[in-house]
Amino acid sequence: MLYRQVYDHIMARMERGEWNAHDKLPSIRCLALELGVNRLTVFKAYQLLKQSGKAYVKEKSGYYVCSEAGSPFARGHDEQQKPPSSAVQMNSELSDIHKVTAAYQFSQAVIDPNLLPNLFLSEYVKKVFDIYPKLMGIYSTPQGDEELREVLSQYLMGHYRVHLHPSEVLITTGAQQAIDLLARIFIRPMDAILVERPTYSAGLDIFRAQGARLIPVAFAPAGYDMDMVEMLMKRHRPRFFYMNPTFHNPTGYTLPTVQRKQLVELAERYRCVLIEDDAFHDMYFEERPPQPLFTYDTEGWVVYLRSFSKYVAPGLRICAVYGRPSVIGPLIAAKSLADNGNPLVTQKIFLHYFQSERMRQHLEKLRIALQIRRDIMEEELAAASIDWRWSTPEGGLNIWLRLPDTVPASDLFHESIRQSISFVPGQICDPLHEMQPWIRLTYSVMNEEQLRVGVQRLADIAERIQKR
Fold it and tell me: Please, which residues have CB within 8 angstroms of residue 177's CB and are 6 or more apart in sequence?
């Protein structure tokens, strides 16, 4: 609901220290004008602040920040300074889950290191230093190594016949940094953006931190309701639509080609940027996925995030951002402020491996290994006496599982954590925070025996909960 998003926006500004303990909040009329919403929406948000103990009312004066609600560094009139160790709250529920040590790891969408070309890469590092003996003494440009950008632009042109200049490529520290930079340059407080429901939970955290107003678009196995997408674009005029259309995280669904073309047409018509996050494109099992939306874009309304290092060497953190100059220019400026560019050494290591025949061989073997692990997880899920349901993913790393009503996800999560099993509750992937019956299980990080035992133990826990 919109008033809840206004509430989140106010809380974020409190946490940043814009309003400290006992500061007066803007009047309902002023804040409604600033955010472009109805006064009743702000009133409901202020009432929620009051009910949750974050604000109090002075009669005929207005709303004020409670002493415990402001910035961790704020000095209230009657409050002691809190120590720096209690500081900054940038909430990330997914990060909190990843911090939990678990013997059976179903929460991290990463690949088992034993499936990666570790020995070959270590040998490759030596060759790279032979080619570039002064590598450790040289900075990269903020935009990224020119040689790597040339290769990645040629890669896209060779595969999809898209004309692209190396100046239209930016290298970021993984796709998540790209999402963060795009949010910083596009979003002003309470700007509307479209997001899939469900979607990548860390993306939601980033957008909320920038004060975005999240407009959900349901993503089903058949794709989107395109009439609904057009209506939302027409009504809300969103700044962008963040999407993960290929082996979607968390569902594993893939958007059909016809809808990809339609989305680009809608983006042009309603001037809505499409941010296409494509981390799993090469991790298909039977058939190649459809072409990226970016390949249908002729007017510059698609920004394409292609993450490569996840299935080569995640520690390299290489993501290519493809876009037209109107977007790449501001992104370079934001990247230079963030870290002034990725380390040159990681870019050169990735560059030379990416061009090798060994890379192609590795991908072919990796697809087979991941498909086997997906099949094992599905076999064990099907063998359980639990009526959980899912759609078989044709690529990617995850299964999106719907629990029966007799097994509450919160009960399953807490009991599983106690027994050293982790997974991602679907609720944190939902912009409305309501998808309690769903969970995301990752099959890529554990070996085959661990998968079997882990799913069996998860099923045992679910069966015990169901019998209560």
Answer: 317, 319, 338
- DSSP symbol at 333: H
Closest Cα partner for 272 from 224, 236, 323? 236
What are the residues whose beta carbons fall under 8 Å from the beta carbon of 468, sequence distance 6 or more?
none
What is the side-by-side order of every strand in the sheet holding 389-390? 389-390, 398-402, 438-442, 424-425
Stretch 396-402: mean pLDDT, rounded? 97
CA distance 277 to 289: 14
Q: At 284, phi and psi to the nearest 5?
A: -105, 160
162: DSSP letter = -
* % the chain with pLDDT above 90: 74
Q: What sign results for the dihedral spanned by CA atoms 112, 368, 440, 176?
A: positive
Q: According to the model, what pLDDT value does residue 68 have?
A: 65
Q: Three-state secondary structure along 91-106?
A: CCHHHHHHCCCCCEEC
Instruction: Order the strands of the 318-322 sheet from edge to edge.
Output: 169-173, 318-322, 302-307, 273-278, 240-243, 192-197, 213-218
Distance CA 415, CA 425 (A): 13
Find the length of the chain: 468
Write out the two tokens for 44. 């409901």
Structural contact between residues 139 and 341, judged by C-beta atoms closer than 8 angstroms: yes
Cα dist. 249→199, 358, 390, 395, 427 in Å? 6, 28, 14, 11, 14
Tell me the pLDDT tens digit for each residue of 356-385: 888 889 999 999 999 999 999 999 999 999
The per-type count for the chain, helices as H runs and strands as E runs, is 15, 15
Tokens 């050169």 found at: 348
Token pair 């809608």 is at which residue? 266
Q: Give the Cα separation of 407 and 386 in Å (integer).
A: 9
* Cα 107-111-114 angle, rounded to 5 deg: 125
